[in-house]
Amino acid sequence: MKCVIAFAALVAIAAGACNKDITVKSQSDINTVNACTKFQGDVTIDGHQEGLAGLGALNMDSVQQITGDLIIQNLYNLQTVSLGQLNSTASLKILNNTNVYKVAIPKLANVADFQVITNPNLKELTYSNITTVSNFQIIDTYIASLGAFSASSVGNIEVLSNTQLTALDFSAVKKTSGYINIANNGRASNITFSQLTQVGGNVSFGNAATLDISKLSSVSDDFSLYQNSFKNLSIPALATAKKSITLSQNLFSAISFPLVTEIGSSLDIINNTNFKSISSTTFPKLTSVPGSVVISGSLDNITFPSLTTVDGQVQLSGSGKLSCDSAEKSFARVDSLNIECDLKVTSKDNDNSSDDSSKDSGSGSGSDDSSKSSASRTSVAAVLGGVVAIVAACL
Ligand SMILES: *[C@@H]1O[C@H](CO)[C@@H](O)[C@H](O)[C@H]1NC(C)=O
Ligand SMILES: *[C@@H]1O[C@H](CO)[C@@H](O)[C@H](O)[C@H]1NC(C)=O
Ligand SMILES: *[C@@H]1O[C@H](CO)[C@@H](O)[C@H](O)[C@H]1NC(C)=O
Ligand SMILES: *[C@@H]1O[C@H](CO)[C@@H](O)[C@H](O)[C@H]1NC(C)=O
Ligand SMILES: *[C@@H]1O[C@H](CO)[C@@H](O)[C@H](O)[C@H]1NC(C)=O
Ligand SMILES: *[C@@H]1O[C@H](CO)[C@@H](O)[C@H](O)[C@H]1NC(C)=O
Ligand SMILES: *[C@@H]1O[C@H](CO)[C@@H](O)[C@H](O)[C@H]1NC(C)=O
Ligand SMILES: *[C@@H]1O[C@H](CO)[C@@H](O)[C@H](O)[C@H]1NC(C)=O
Ligand SMILES: *[C@@H]1O[C@H](CO)[C@@H](O)[C@H](O)[C@H]1NC(C)=O
């Protein structure tokens, strides 16, 4: 296909061309935007319109600033994007470009809303130093590394399903006003939030080999860890967990929350295969859970040395060395305990015969409540919402 390179940049800069929203329809519209040092408006480049659909390379290496949104989406033939001088934009959304493999935005420093989502062949995403960002999302790409990230106060951070990505260094981040959701990246991913103290929304980490949240002291919404492979983790500074704490399907054998005294809603500890003992160091100071406590897995021992209040139900299930009788004793200090217990004793020291030692001391509230473990969810589709029309340059 042969594209006509228009001389739009030279002729189309009628007064005002850099000051209004543009839905790009052709290469010459791209040139028009690129001829502006500062473009004041939104730039939408969407391949759903025939014409632009054939675009293979998007080069806008002169424009330095876009005050509105820059949206690059649904361009299925697009292979490379180069925004060589762009240093600032209200948003940069690169969505659903199935074949793009290289995106260069080397100067981008300030971007309120940064979304790189569903570009499954994207291998090279080069930005050198993001210093100001409110919403930061990289989801479903093939990138193996992130650029420097030096923003200390952020809105949301979401990095999901980048299967080649192993080093997630967010050590510059001190607090977020929104959520952090990181999961399903490279197999041995190391996640570092070593300076993070406060999170205004949910915190969810999944599939990590190492995790550093050693200064995290306050979480305003749900806190969850799931399918992580680290063996032992201390969350030494966390004092305030305003909603639930969920630990599900992790491989740790020990974890500790030394400062947590109160959980805002419920505590779920579910199917952590190697986690046999909730010991006196796991939740040493936890006194009160206004919601439920749900524990399932192969537990040998449960100890909550300070727990005196559970307003919801305590639900125990699984199989291990722990019997329901012993488990009830573990919660003996809890006022008006409401416990539903379904623990099968599969092995006891020096006693391989027992099956009867499992007892149901259910509180009469009927059948099992099935798992309530809540993993984090992100609707990529929800992000890929609005669509505009587009282009025709290559005729
Ligand atoms: C970013 O672009 C703006 C608009 O052209 C310019 O004034 C500013 O100097 C640039 N900043 C940097 C750090 O390059
Ligand atoms: C990124 O930019 C910030 C602010 O300009 C600067 O302090 C920091 O050293 C830079 N980091 C890197 C890795 O370039
Ligand atoms: C992850 O951390 C482990 C242990 O600190 C280290 O051996 C490994 O090289 C790190 N991997 C990456 C990709 O940084
Ligand atoms: C886990 O690590 C802590 C220190 O971070 C240590 O005190 C504790 O003994 C470890 N637990 C296990 C079971 O290895
Ligand atoms: C936990 O394990 C039980 C029994 O294997 C299973 O029925 C349940 O779906 C699991 N729940 C989670 C959240 O993994
Ligand atoms: C559980 O652990 C506590 C404290 O570590 C210990 O005192 C208790 O005997 C253990 N219970 C069982 C049934 O092993
Ligand atoms: C213990 O029980 C298991 C399963 O019932 C059985 O396979 C095993 O041989 C028993 N071991 C002993 C020492 O009785
Ligand atoms: C996270 O936050 C949102 C909005 O506050 C909420 O709807 C959701 O249930 C929370 N929890 C999890 C585990 O995603
Ligand atoms: C994303 O691209 C696929 C084709 O690869 C297309 O079918 C789908 O409609 C696009 N999604 C959105 C939200 O535009």
UniProtKB/TrEMBL annotation:
The keyword Signal applies. Residues 36-130 form the Receptor L-domain domain. Its main location: secreted. Pfam families: Recep_L_domain (PF01030). PROSITE patterns: PROKAR_LIPOPROTEIN. Keywords: Cell wall, Glycoprotein, Secreted, Signal. The gene is ecm33. SUPFAM superfamilies: L domain-like (SSF52058). Residues 348-359 have a biased composition (Basic and acidic residues). Residues 1-16 form the signal peptide. This is Cell wall protein Ecm33. It comes from Coemansia spiralis. Residues 348-376 are annotated as: Disordered. It is found in: Secreted, Cell wall. Residues 360-376 have a biased composition (Low complexity). InterPro entries: CWI-Assembly_Regulator, Rcpt_L-dom, Rcpt_L-dom_sf.
